[in-house]
Design a protein that fits this description.
Elements lengths: L2 H20 L5 H15 L3 H26 L5 H4 L7 H26 L5 H6 L2 H7 L8 H24 L4 H17 L5 H25 L3 H18 L2 H7 L7
Length: 253
C-alpha cells in the first residue's frame, strides 16, 4: 500500500472508530438509561458500570481499527513492543519532565488570557475522566492505563511505525500521527477549554512520544510517558476543587 493510501485509510478508520464510540451515547438520556440497565445487570452502581462498559466499547472498536491498520502495513507487531536500551532511560526521564513543563506552560498561557478559567473543573467534566472518577479509588488507574496502552500501539505503533515501514519520511510520519492523535482527543470533549487543554497536551505528548518511538524503535517509552499523563489528568480531575464543582452530576449521565 502506498503512503497516501495508508494515510487516507488511517484517517477514515480512526474517524469511524471515534464516531461509533461517541455518537450512540451522545444523548444524556440514553447514557442514563444504559447506565441503569448495566447497573441492574452487573449489580454495580450506574457510574462505575457505565465507566467499565465505555472502556470496553472504546477498546473493542479501537481493536478492530488497529487490526485493519496493521494488516495494511508490513509492520510486525513484535517490532511495536521492541525493548528500549538501558541508555534510553535518561531520554525518557527528560521527556517526562519536558512534556510536563510544556503542558504546564500551555495551561499558564490559558490563565493569562482567561484568569477565571476553571481548568480542574473542566477536566473533571470530560466524559471519560468523570467516568474514571466514578470508579473505586484503587481502580482509577487501570482504565487510563489500558487506554494509554492501546492508543500508543495504534498511534505511535501502527500509524507512526507503519508509515515508516511503508517508506514515509520520519517528519511526515511524526506530524501525521501526532495531529491525528490530538484530533481524536479533541473529538471526545465538549467545551473550548477542554479542547484547548487536551489539544495542546496531546500535541505535546504525541510529538515527544513520537520522537521517543522513532529513536528507540518501539512504543514502550512512549507508553510510560502516556501513562504518566493519564494519571496526571485523572488526579487533576479528582482534586478537591474539581470534585466540589462536579459532585452533583459527576458522570453526566
Amino acid at each position: 500500500m502506498s503512503v497516501p493510501a495508508f494515510t487516507a485509510l488511517t484517517t477514515g478508520v480512526v474517524a469511524l472508530w471515534l464516531a461509533l464510540y461517541r455518537l450512540p451515547f451522545g444523548d444524556p438520556a440514553r447514557r442514563r438509561r444504559t447506565a441503569l440497565w448495566l447497573a441492574g445487570w452487573t449489580r454495580l452502581r450506574p457510574e462505575p458500570a457505565f465507566a467499565v462498559f465505555g472502556t470496553l466499547v472504546y477498546l473493542v472498536l479501537g481493536g478492530l481499527a488497529l487490526a485493519v491498520l496493521l494488516a495494511a502495513t508490513p509492520l510486525a507487531l513484535r517490532r511495536v513492543f521492541a525493548l528500549p536500551a538501558p541508555r534510553d532511560a535518561l531520554a525518557l526521564l527528560l521527556a517526562v519532565l519536558g512534556t510536563s513543563s510544556t503542558t504546564i506552560l500551555c495551561v499558564s498561557l490559558l490563565y493569562r488570557v482567561h484568569p477565571r478559567a476553571d481548568v480542574p473543573g473542566e477536566i473533571a467534566r470530560i466524559q471519560w475522566i468523570s467516568a474514571i472518577l466514578a470508579l473505586p479509588r484503587h481502580s482509577r488507574w487501570t482504565v487510563p492505563a489500558a487506554a494509554a496502552l492501546f492508543e500508543e500501539v495504534l498511534f505511535r505503533g501502527a500509524v507512526l511505525l507503519g508509515l515508516g515501514a511503508l517508506g514515509a519520511g520520519p517528519a511526515f510520519a511524526l506530524a501525521f500521527s501526532t495531529v491525528l492523535f490530538a484530533a481524536g482527543q479533541v473529538a471526545l470533549v465538549s467545551t473550548r477549554t477542554q479542547a484547548y487543554v487536551l489539544g495542546t497536551s496531546s500535541l505535546v505528548l504525541g510529538t515527544v512520544g513520537g520522537l521517543l518511538t522513532t529513536a528507540t524503535g518501539g512504543v514502550l517509552p512512549a507508553l510510560v510517558l502516556h501513562m504518566s499523563f493519564a494519571g496526571f489528568y485523572t488526579n487533576l480531575g479528582a482534586s478537591p476543587a474539581a470534585g466540589a464543582r462536579t459532585a452533583p452530576g459527576r458522570l453526566s449521565l
